[in-house]
Each structure stands twice: as C-alpha cells, then as structure tokens.
Automatic annotation (TrEMBL):
The lineage of its organism: Bacteria, Pseudomonadati, Bacteroidota, Flavobacteriia, Flavobacteriales. The chain crosses the membrane at residues 12-29, 56-74, 311-329. This is VWA domain-containing protein. Pfam families: VWA. It comes from the Bacteria. It comes from Flavobacterium hankyongi.
Amino acid sequence: MYELDESKYLYLFILLPLLVLIFLWVQIWKRKKQREFGDEELLKVLSPEKSRFKPSLKFGIVLLGFAMLILGLVNPKIGTKVEKVKREGIDIVFAIDVSKSMLAEDVAPNRLEKSKQLVSQIINNLGSDRIGIIAYSGSAFPVLPITTDYNIAKMFLQSMNPGMISSQGSNLDEAIELTEKYFEGSGNTSKLLIMVTDGEDHSEAAESAAEQAKKKGIKIITIGVGTTSGGPIPIKNNGVTESYHIDKSTGEKVITKLRPEALQAIAKAAKGGYINGNNTKEVLDFMRKSLNNIQKTEFEATEMANFQSQFQWFLGFGFFLLLLDVFLLERKTKWVQKLDLFNEKKER
C-alpha cells in the first residue's frame, strides 16, 4: 500500500515531454547547421572522438534525474503493515440533502456547498469516531460506508451533487431507513445520524421513521441550511446563471425556503437536537457539546500503520544522476570503442 503525500507536484511531469521536444528540435537544428558547414563524413574525420550516442545518453540521464526529483517532491509513502487498533468513539452517519433546492444561494456560496463545508469542519473536529455518508433527495443513496478514514470521507463529500440522484424531493424517511442499515453490526456502539438539509418537501413519514430510529438506539441531529425568506433555484451553464427554476403551474420562479419546524420535529422524535447551519462556529460548538454527551464505546479498527516517507531515495538518486551527467563527457568511451559493437573497424 502507498499514498502520495504532496500529489499537487505531479503536474511537474508535464515539463518532461516538453524537454524531450526541445532536445529533439536542438538535435535537428545542430544537424542542419553541420550540413551547412561541411560534408558530414569530413566532419566525422575532423572530430573522431565525438560520440553521436553520448548526447542522447546524457539527456536521458538528466531527464530521469528530473523525474526522480519530482517524485521526491511528491513524497510517496509506503505502508509496511496492517494492524488492528483499539479506538474509542461513536458511529456517525452524515445524511446530506442533494435535491435541487440545495442549489439556492440564499446562503453563500449555496446551500449544498455550505452543507459540505459544515460536514468537513465537523469531521475535522472529530477524534476517533467512525463515519459514513449518505446522499438523499427523492431517494437515498449510499456514498461511503462506515470508515475511520477521514481523508477519504472528505474526498467523497466534495464529489456530491444533485445529479447523483435522479428523483427529486427530500425523502428524509428513506435516508433514516438507509442509516439503520449502515448501523447493522455496530453492536453496542453509540449511533448518531446528522442530517444536513433545508427540510423542504420532506415526507410525512419522516417523524415516524425518526421514532423507529430512536427505538433502535439511533440519535438524530438535524442541521438546517438556508433562510426562512428563501431564494430561487438557479440554472447555470459553466458557472453562469442563465435562468431560474419555474413553477409549471403558475409560471413563476420557485422560491425555496428553510423549514426549521420540520427539522425540529424530526430531531425531537429521535431525542436529538436541531441547529441552524448558517453560522459555522455555532454549529461546531453545538456539535462539540452534543458529542461530549454521547457515551463513547471501544471498538476495533483495521488501519494501515507505519507509513514511511520515501522522498529521500528519489531525491538522492535524482541528484546522483545529475552529478553523473556532469562527469559524463560527449567524447567516445575508449573501452566501448575496443568492443567494436557496430563493426566499425571492419568497415574501415
């Protein structure tokens, strides 16, 4: 197993084919100028020690040296073993509303992006809890199973968008039922569902689903994103707003609003809590207090341990190749000449 510590430097590999093109152009230009200067066979006689192969060899060594230095900057890490570790925490599932109403921009940059920011900040403040992610609108969709890998969770989180689920609406009860399946096999671990949504278009079955979740030991916290005054739902092309969603029955813009009453009712049914998500600091303080009041349970997790940085090998080999290029002359190597690999002596 391996991971790349600074993958942002991988774009530097784009420079390598550019260097190859420059080298080939220089070789063609030199060959052309030599032909203008004099006969090619005569130039070989005048400079018998000049090697036609060495320049290409030197360039190949320099190119490989640069590639090693880039890999050194990327810093590949290799995991040496998999081990079982004991951790203490709770199981948390984030259910994130990805319906079209979450594209409303009554909170900046829009409700969905604000939801992602909130969940990412909450994850950053977790200790050793296990987390999973669900996306829902008209139906619920499993995005990430229960895991202790927060980096993977945040990567999947950023990829969430309204296009991942075709059916529209805010089917909170189906998200709650899917969460129950996530928690199957968790044993006595404390279970928490965090729903991030505007609460609009939820079904009437959401409260009864929350009551069923409470009977199974699942606590629900709802985070409302949006404003009660609401806003239209933009239709964008390449990031530019072209129009807004229209109510087909009235012909007017659809104004979507935050429904805190619905979210408060769901949280109350599951003995949880509700918080308005527009203020990130208030949400983090609320979550910190809520998590502190939930009993932590010891569980066993599988982790890749002892990831070792390997940058020093790549940097060392890269500098060695660049140093080797300095001492590698463009003259023919005498011991190679004695081998007469190309039968040059017989031709003479």
